[in-house]
């Protein structure tokens, strides 16, 4: 029996397991906390898909300079550190980014940011910064879109393997541009890449977020295909999971709890310019929480009810795209449309 057959069979088993569970049926044991953070006078939160937690339990957010782009806003720091009470500890990064998209905090508390757009010598890069804001590494050529070993095109997110290898999800469009995961060593030297446009194993339509579990498996939020794909660190396909909705963001904590932010699912097809975009039959938007070990979904935090009316067109994206959870199990959702970051605590 071939290896490929075994891989497909394993994936099918996982998916069929998920099909036994009714989407959106899990309980919501959380309550939402708004306005949990304090910003300086005159500073408002912009669109954000980037939130992560450091070793001190501090919450790091990269927003788009109070708007949905940092272009022309070189006087605003988009990277912000908050303590657990919501007090702003520090901010930095003014003039460095066009479109902060993904964030990853490594074991040394360094901050990795992907800049998902590019022009005029900025963007299309993944930047590593110290907790004080010093640039330590840049992967990609600022302002240059490409698909080579040293260029990126609309990079989405970064994940750091236990040995320090760097993985980047690259490509933010369905059917055009890049659709790949790129692997570098801890010094930024290219190792390999895999992926192309499509819906087969190892293909992608927007590898929008990345995370590692305790086994060192790489989870990729393959948003345009309404699934999470799981790989080993050499890019070998392991499984696909569809029970976590249409994932814009994923986060896996030290206990292998898996958090998924679904900001785009359309349970029914709508009319208009984006009629088929986000079509994911039966799935409502919201945050899904479960296990990275076996794929079980145990909780569902729905988007507000007005976003779940099946017979009305909805915005392309709503509520959280980025997601993270602290050691106490509090969940943070970074929102593009509402331009906010919500906190969810156990009821």
User: How are strands sequenced across the largest beta sheet?
Assistant: 1-24-23-22
Shape: globular
Please state the structural category: mainly beta
Helix content: under 10%
N-to-C SSE string, H for helix and E for strand: HEEEEEEEEEEEEEEEEEEEEEEEE
**Roughly what fraction of the amino acids lie in strands?**
35-45%
CATH overall fold name: Neuraminidase
Q: Taking Cα atoms only, what radius of gyration do you get, to the nearest Å?
A: 19 Å
By CATH, the architecture is named: 6 Propeller
Largest sheet: 4 strands, antiparallel
Cα distance spanning the termini:
50 Å
Average pLDDT, rounded to a whole number, is 92
Instruction: Provide the CATH superfamily.
Output: TolB, C-terminal domain
Number of helices: 1
Record field, number of beta strands: 24
Structural overview:
- The chain has one helix spanning about 5-20, and strands at about 30-35, 50-55, 60, 80, 90, 100-105, 110-120, 120-130, 135-140, 155-160, 165-170, 180-185, 190-195, 205-210, 220, 225-230, 235-240, 245-250, 255-260, 285-290, 295-300, 320-325, 330-335, 340-345.
- The model is unreliable at about 1-20 and about 305-310 (pLDDT under 50).
- It has a single domain (about 5-210, about 260-345), classed as Neuraminidase, CATH 2.120.10.
- By secondary structure, it is mostly beta strands.
- The radius of gyration is 19 Å and the shape is globular.
- The strands form six sheets. A four-stranded antiparallel β-sheet has the order 1-24-23-22, with no helix packed on it. Strands 2-3-4-5 form a four-stranded antiparallel β-sheet, with no helix packed on it. The chain has a four-stranded antiparallel β-sheet with strand order 6-7-8-9, with no helix packed on it.
- Helices cover about 5% and strands about 40% of the residues.
């Amino acid at each position: 029996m071939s290896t490929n057959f075994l891989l497909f069979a394993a994936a099918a088993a996982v998916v069929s397991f998920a099909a036994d569970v009714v989407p959106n049926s899990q309980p919501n044991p959380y309550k939402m906390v708004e306005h949990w953070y304090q910003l300086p006078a005159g500073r408002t939160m912009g669109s954000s898909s980037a939130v992560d937690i450091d070793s001190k339990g501090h919450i790091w957010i990269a927003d788009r300079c109070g708007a949905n782009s940092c272009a022309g806003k070189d006087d605003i720091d988009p990277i912000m550190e908050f303590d657990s009470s919501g007090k702003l500890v520090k901010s930095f990064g003014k003039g460095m980014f066009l479109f902060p998209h993904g964030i990853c905090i490594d074991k040394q508390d360094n901050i990795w940011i992907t800049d998902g757009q590019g022009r005029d010598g900025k963007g299309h890069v993944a930047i590593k910064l110290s907790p004080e804001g010093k640039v330590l590494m840049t992967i990609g050529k600022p302002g240059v879109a490409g698909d080579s070993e040293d260029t990126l095109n609309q990079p989405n997110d970064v994940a750091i393997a236990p040995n320090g290898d760097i993985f980047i999800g690259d490509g933010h469009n369905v059917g055009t541009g890049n659709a790949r995961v790129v692997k570098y060593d801890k010094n930024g030297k290219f190792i390999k890449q895999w992926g192309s446009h499509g819906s087969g194993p190892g293909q992608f339509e927007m590898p929008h977020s990345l995370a590692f579990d305790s086994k060192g498996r790489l989870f990729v939020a393959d948003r345009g295909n309404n699934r999470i794909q799981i790989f080993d660190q050499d890019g070998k396909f392991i499984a696909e999971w569809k029970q976590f909705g249409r994932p814009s963001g994923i986060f896996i904590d030290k206990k292998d709890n898996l958090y998924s932010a679904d900001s785009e699912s359309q349970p029914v097809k709508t009319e208009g310019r984006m009629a088929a975009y986000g079509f994911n039959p039966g799935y409502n938007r919201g945050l899904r929480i479960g296990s990275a070990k076996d794929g079980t979904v145990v909780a569902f935090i729905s988007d507000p009810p007005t976003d779940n009316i099946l017979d009305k067109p909805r915005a392309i994206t709503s509520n959280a795209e980025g997601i993270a959870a602290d050691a106490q199990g509090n969940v943070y959702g970074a929102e593009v449309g509402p331009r906010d970051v919500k906190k969810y605590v156990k009821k």
